[in-house]
Amino acid sequence: MYRKILITTDGSAVSQHTACAGVKFAQQMGAEVLALFVAPDYQYPVYVEIIPPSYPSEEEYVAQMRRLGEEYMGKIMRSCAGANLQHACMTAFSDTAALKIVDVAEQEGCDLIFMGSHGRSGWGQLLLGSVTNKVLSHTTKPVLVHRLISEPASG
């Protein structure tokens, strides 16, 4: 039914559990997996003339976010390899994560977007909930929203 499934992650414990459920779903479908982490765009300091020496350059920021994305998606990649699924991962940059998720799903030919109903706890949880709602309202592709019954233990 589905040949290529986009699984999103923000690195939180909830998101990691959702991603593992996504891999199991992909295994049942015999589908390829594309894992996606959307990092915020680089923000230049307000006073560009006076950049503090500790402020990362754009290149340093991009490299750091790519490393973070690889770390977040590492468990997904290992799960896919263990399940003998074809898989890839991608770190994308955008301040509008939902639109980037929709764009990547379209550009990469994904049949399904698999994502959590919520991600990070606190304010971040509200934000990812809004990301999920925006994805649902901006895509014509099927979206499978995974909801955990209880909060996973941090680990």
From TrEMBL:
Which Pfam family name is an example for this entry? Usp
The entry lists its GO molecular-function terms as: ATP binding
Q: Which InterPro entries match?
A: Rossmann-like_a/b/a_fold, Universal_stress_UspA, UspA
Q: Where does the UspA domain lie?
A: 1-145
Gene3D superfamilies, A to Z: HUPs
Q: Does the keyword Nucleotide-binding apply?
A: yes
Please report which protein family the annotation says this sequence is part of.
Answer: Belongs to the universal stress protein A family.
Q: What is this protein called?
A: Nucleotide-binding universal stress protein, UspA family
Organism of provenance: Massilia yuzhufengensis
